[in-house]
């Protein structure tokens, strides 16, 4: 079947490398990724005719099918069309971009905000927009790939510190030239581990060493802080964080991303950052859906309440089953199985019993941390929990 998918026709070494790639062949053999659902209704999805409960979405608040979000998207499509066909720096800027940016900035407690067409771009830009050759970036070892790409593109030197370990960060800083400009790159909630970033300690260390802090809060927005204002707000440290970046594709129920900070920082980013200057603006319906979700977050607190009620219930179940959740403190909850084989079979048994999860193995996670990533949504129902519990008990008894 695999041979049939990729019939040999290589004309050059690069095409040949792609054709022979063992990881791609393995991916096809085990069919772990790139599933296509033919239907979705809330937490229910259907893949190849099989009904599954979604237990791996980043839609923490469950707003993507909220009537107000859907209506906002439709209205924007009707009013503005499908896209603006240009970068914000050139022909693509519209009134709704400014409105979304102003609303997001106010919500996050920052003066200004710039919106991108993907969270990946915005998180890259949260580094490349500010760090440059000659600077030093202090990076948590477990950062998201978008931040590593930003770090690489910035041409700054990089020092890695142990995951969420302020003391290690302090030690490294103590050995560096005090006059070199430094940027600390951290996350609010680490998406694979579910850990909350150690912001109180890290902001203190940053102050002692004159460091700029860039926070990726893709998973913290909607989940932590008053009305879901994120991890900085949760700790009352918004003023101590220079940049808050994130995604619109999680609690904000759309696609896209943002970088927020003081007006001078955002204007600097708009002048210099290639991801802002040379990439097309987000579409009218994407922006409208996020604006609607942002409003719901402030007017309908029940979604966040439900998310945390469901999270506590799910955590209790995992504890009862004595599963290793890597001390996750949030709705992003890994089940650490420790080896690739165990993670695979656990994932497969969940699937058989109608539960959709995502597998992540080394090198995507540290050695010995091969895991099945699960995530809770405000939308999970009593019926979902019954199915999830049965599937977890089954998978646990089999591996
Ligand atoms: C921590 C983190 N940053 C950035 C991104 C990129 O966001 P998007 O998927 O909206 O491109 C993700 C996506 O999973 C993420 O987990």
User: SSE order, as H and E?
Assistant: HHHEEEHHEHEHEHEHEHEEHHHHEHEEEH
Outline, from the CA principal axes? globular
Sheet with most strands: strand arrangement: 4-10-9-8-7-5-6
What is the overall pLDDT average? 96
Helix content: 40-55%
What's the CATH H-level superfamily name of the largest domain?
Type I PLP-dependent aspartate aminotransferase-like (Major domain)
Radius of gyration from the alpha-carbon trace, in angstroms:
22 Å
- pLDDT below 50 for ≥5 consecutive residues: which ranges? none
CATH topology of the largest domain: Aspartate Aminotransferase, domain 2
| Total E-strand runs | 14
Which architecture of the largest domain does the CATH hierarchy give at level 2? 3-Layer(aba) Sandwich
The total number of structural domains is 2
Supply the number of helical segments.
16
Strand proportion: 15-25%
Largest sheet: 7 strands, mixed
Structural class of the secondary structure composition? alpha/beta
- The first-to-last residue Cα distance is 29 Å
């Amino acid at each position: 079947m695999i041979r049939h998918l990729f019939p040999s026709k290589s004309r050059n070494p690069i095409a040949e490398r792609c054709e022979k790639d063992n990881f791609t062949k393995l991916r096809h053999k085990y069919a772990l990724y790139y599933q296509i659902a033919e239907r979705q209704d809330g937490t229910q999805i259907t893949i190849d005719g099989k009904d599954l409960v979604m237990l791996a979405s980043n839609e923490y608040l469950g707003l993507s099918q909220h009537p107000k979000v859907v209506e906002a998207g439709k209205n924007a499509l009707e009013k503005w069309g499908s896209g603006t066909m240009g970068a914000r720096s050139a022909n693509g800027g519209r009134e709704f971009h400014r409105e979304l940016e102003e609303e997001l900035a106010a919500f996050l407690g920052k003066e200004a905000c710039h919106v991108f067409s993907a969270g990946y771009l915005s998180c890259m830009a949260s580094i490349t927009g500010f760090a440059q050759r000659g600077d030093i970036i202090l990076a948590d070892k477990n950062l998201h790939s978008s931040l590593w790409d930003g770090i690489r593109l910035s041409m700054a030197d990089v020092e890695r510190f142990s995951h969420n370990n302020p003391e290690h960060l302090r030690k490294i800083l103590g050995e560096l030239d005090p006059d070199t400009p430094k940027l600390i790159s951290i996350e609010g909630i680490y998406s694979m581990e579910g850990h909350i970033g150690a912001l109180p300690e890290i902001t203190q260390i940053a102050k002692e060493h004159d460091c700029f802090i860039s926070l990726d809060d893709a998973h913290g927005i909607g989940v932590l802080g008053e009305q879901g204002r994120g991890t900085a707000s949760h700790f009352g440290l918004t003023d101590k964080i220079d940049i808050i970046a994130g995604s619109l594709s999680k609690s904000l129920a759309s696609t896209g991303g943002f970088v927020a900070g003081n007006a001078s920082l955002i204007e600097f980013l708009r002048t210099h950052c290639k991801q802002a200057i040379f990439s097309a603006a987000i579409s009218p319906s994407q922006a409208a859906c996020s604006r609607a979700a942002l409003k719901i977050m402030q007017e309908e607190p029940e979604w966040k309440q439900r998310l945390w009620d469901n999270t506590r219930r799910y955590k209790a179940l995992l504890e009862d089953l004595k599963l290793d959740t890597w001390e996750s403190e949030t709705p992003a909850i890994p089940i650490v199985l420790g080896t690739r084989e165990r993670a695979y079979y656990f994932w497969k048994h969940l699937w058989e019993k109608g539960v959709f999860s995502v597998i992540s193995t080394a090198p995507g996670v540290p050695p010995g941390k091969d895991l099945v990533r699960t995530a809770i949504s405000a939308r999970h129902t009593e019926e979902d929990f019954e199915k999830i519990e049965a599937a977890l008990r089954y998978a646990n008894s089999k591996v």
